[in-house]
Input
Amino acid sequence: MQPHPPPTRRRARTTAAPAQRNPENAGDGAAASDSATPCLLQRAHLRAVPSTLLIPLAARARGSRYFPWLACNDVVATSLVERLGADVEPCLDDLPTVLNVLWRTRAIKDAGRSFFLAHPKAGGVSLGCGLSHHFQWLDTGANQWLDADLPEVMDLRRELLPVRCPRTRHATVDITQPGWWQRLGLPKEEGEGDGAGVQPVFIVCEGVLMYLQPAQVQAVLREFAQCAPEGSRLVIDVMTHRAVGRAAQHASVGPTGAEFHWGVGSMDELTAAHPRLALLRQQSVSECYGWPGVVLETMWWPWLGAPLYGMATLGVGDGSP
Output
């Protein structure tokens, strides 16, 4: 997602407006095949933030037509778009966001493959998974995977993506509520010297934190730092604090009624939540625009304080990548 996208072919429109425009009951962004038969996504009655799951799904399913060098070959997303019966073309009109999603998908794949190369039997988690399917790329044949999201999203996911592999599972979770680590049954750091045999965990949390309040984001980072075994990784996407409160200007997110509540004024803020946290890697989508993008972001940096849109890999307990 990109808070201030450059002009696109046409601004993405709301294709399935709800009865009310209350942000908590905003539309799902998908058109019904006809007025009498609403598509599956409409019947799910997703609230504003959960409804944004269609944005990355559309980008992964069809975005390679615009950015073939970032093609992620997401066969699951392609199938789901057809089964949902949703009109995803409005999402594809927002080309900067399509690029952002494909770029972050590549970053997540790279981070996950590196982690599971070192820990082939460890566990992976997608927090706020939506309808993403990272396990198709990160399955080592021996690792575990957990997809977790809010109840209404998981109801939809169970219908579309039932668990078929014994090494995968689903769970409902609200990460704004303390104790989510324990409720998900994730391996826990047991204290110095006691957790030597505990496998680290690889966690993806994409397209989620910017919709939370700053205190909630700090609590999520703190719980990860306090609970995760040594060597665990948390991969998140971040945006500048200048985007906060400006989701209405975003071509894809604006029509959903969701709002950006969190951004960073400095990447150092990510490690301030707990002394165990280390920022192992930071990336900016500006790299996709070549040297002009890098130069422009460098010029804007004193005002932005952080990438316009980027990725961060956080680790606990060690400083190795």
